[in-house]
Amino acid sequence: MKNKKTRSKHISSRIKKTSSSHKQSYIGFSRTIIYISCLLLIFTIIGYTNHKVLTRSVEGASIVRFLYGEETVPLPRITEAVTYNIYYKQTSEPVFTNSVRSIPASITSYTISYLRKGSDYVYRISALNASGSEFWWSSTLPLSHVQPM
Question: From CA 125, how far away is CA 99, in angstroms rounded?
């Protein structure tokens, strides 16, 4: 009988030691995870505060600029004209879909930008009098000298 009691005490003490060592390794693992999480948080905060944010764009910089061109259009000298409007479109479009409005009559030319390279465009110019009425129209002309921007 003594042998059975000794044996059961020995087994139960072994179970206690094993479960306590599992608890210790679990606690150790948990502490490691917490420590790593804290380090990541600190590095994230430091990295964020040292991160330089781009607050201004660089004039003339564009990642799509190479896809477009521009052309300078001469403006006519029309008596009584106060301002001009330029209407332009791709040749394939049925109506004029783009415009530049209220160009002062003192301006002799205007550069139209962001014309798709490889596309054909046409334009018309209208002259406006002091009351804002369009009283003169040019014929439809091609934009044939599109230059890189």
Answer: 10
Q: Distance between CA 87 and CA 38 in Å, rounded?
A: 61
Give the separation between CA 104 and CA 18, rounded to whole angstroms.
91
State in Å, rounded, how far the first CA of the chain is from the last one: 101
Asked if residue 137 and residue 79 are part of one domain, the reply reads: yes
The CA distance from 60 to 114, in Å, is 13
Q: Is residue 60 part of a domain?
A: no
Could you tell me which of 136, 144, 135, 147 has the C-alpha nearest to residue 88?
A: 144
pTM: 0.57
Assess whether 2 and 39 both reside in one domain.
yes
Count the domains in the chain. 2
For residue range 62-109, list pLDDT tens digits in order.
Answer: 667 778 889 999 999 999 999 999 999 999 999 999 999 999 999 999
Question: Residue 101 sits in which domain range?
Answer: 68-148
120 in a domain, yes or no?
Answer: yes
Helices (H), the chain: 2-50
Q: If you ran DSSP here, which 8-state letter would residue 48 be given?
A: H
